[in-house]
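retry 2 of 3: previous attempt timed out while embedding S-adenosylmethionine. Reduced batch size to 1 and resubmitted. Inputs unchanged:
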Amino acid sequence: MIDEVLTVLRPRPGGSYLDGTVGGGGHSEGLLDHSSPDGRLLCTDADPDALERASKRLIRFNGRVIMRQAWLDEVPAVAHTLGYTPLDGALVDLGLSSDQLDNAARGFSFMHDGPLDMRFDPTHGYTAAQLINQSDVAYLTHILREYGEVLRAGKVAEAIWSARPISTTFQLRDAVAGIARSRGRIHPATQVFQALRIAANDELRRLSDALPQLVDCLAPGGRLAVITFHSLEDRIVKQAFRRFATRSDMQPEAEIYTALSNVTVRLITHKPIMPSEAEVAANARARSAKLRVVEKLG
Ligand SMILES: C[S@@+](CC[C@H](N)C(=O)[O-])C[C@H]1O[C@@H](n2cnc3c(N)ncnc32)[C@H](O)[C@@H]1O
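retry 2 succeeded.
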């Protein structure tokens, strides 16, 4: 959704921007091109391989771009420390890059046999295999239900638990074959893999924590654009943006929102922007993408 992102973020020369999920660097390249000659961009990602690839792609912008490894909820602090705030625009493009999905060694896909890793940062934390092998059925059920909306989560969790120890993607795929039910036309293992990836990377908690802080980093008139790929992420973004836009609805129980007590945000997208038919035809993975945008008021 590169054109849509550039339209809503309106990068301009001299501006200060953030790409909080640089991935392969496609969106970053567009932001740098459109903010030439002196707009600057902070690129972050939890995945060191992504940063390395993006650095090569963006080498011609040397001097206008900084790369840092960071989880989404750490990015606001990094932006402050590096003097990138206030930001004129920030992008978060959640989920997985094609490079990650297609690399069997990363263990994200049931289409490729490989170690069941699934960590965005392979140097820290628990792999998906460790999560499975060290969890009981109740916790596995919780992961599958909360992070994958897996149908018959208890039965699927029992099947996984009985198949332990699990160390590869194909072992997990085979363990749920015939038990996991698909929603729509997707492969039955899709939501099981999604659930474990979200758990291994603590993705939903990081997203919830990051959103108010990212809004806090914006300059007046600055915009935050978030692209999500499944309903759990989209619900978090939609509800957070609505809360930010109607301060009276903000819940004081969330300590994090107190930082926003003087902030007013305008919803730029009341309904999410979806990818064009042409983009979906060219890249089937884009079909579930949703783009939501807010703008910080003065
Ligand atoms: C869909 S890709 C981004 C693609 C990128 N916009 C491009 O143009 O190539 C998502 C990226 O976000 C990173 N990511 C996902 N969740 C993250 C999180 N919570 N913290 C940091 N990075 C995250 C992944 O490692 C991946 O590289």
